[in-house]
Amino acid sequence: MKGHCLCGKTQFTVEMLNYDVHVCHCSMCRRQSSGIMMTIDIVPNSLAFQNDSTLSIYDSSEWGERGFCKKCGTSLFWRMKNNEYCNVNVFALDVAIEDLYLDSEIYIDHKPEFYAFKNHTKHMTEAEVVALFSQSGNE
């Protein structure tokens, strides 16, 4: 699957695991996107850049980093520093919207009350997400 940033300067390909969209309500994603971050999981290490001259990596936590285009500011991905897990901004991909399915929401205990999705999704709290990634990073 091909993808790119808003200005088209940062271009990449990925191998998608499925068409399940995940939403993150953590404070970093909300600040970065002025709302929620919607992503799709990809096969680890399948993120390959055809043009990364405008790619910038932000060291956002002990175990994670965020990639974005330094020319237009488009958020592109979040990945574990050990590359065991990576997800990509769903709207940076050239995927048909009708093929997507809103599957889950993480950091649900940080979601502001003023919005909600109409369909039912799986929910994970901050503690559940941290435990999952901490466990994954120790294997």
TrEMBL record:
Coiled-coil spans in chain: none
Domain of life (superkingdom): Bacteria
Domain CENP-V/GFA: 1-116
Short name of one Pfam family: GFA
InterPro entries, per the entry: CENP-V/GFA, Mss4-like_sf
GO molecular function: carbon-sulfur lyase activity; metal ion binding
Keywords per UniProt: Lyase, Metal-binding, Zinc
Family: Belongs to the Gfa family.
Protein name stated in the entry: Glutathione-dependent formaldehyde-activating enzyme
Organism taxonomic ancestry: Bacteria, Pseudomonadati, Pseudomonadota, Gammaproteobacteria, Moraxellales
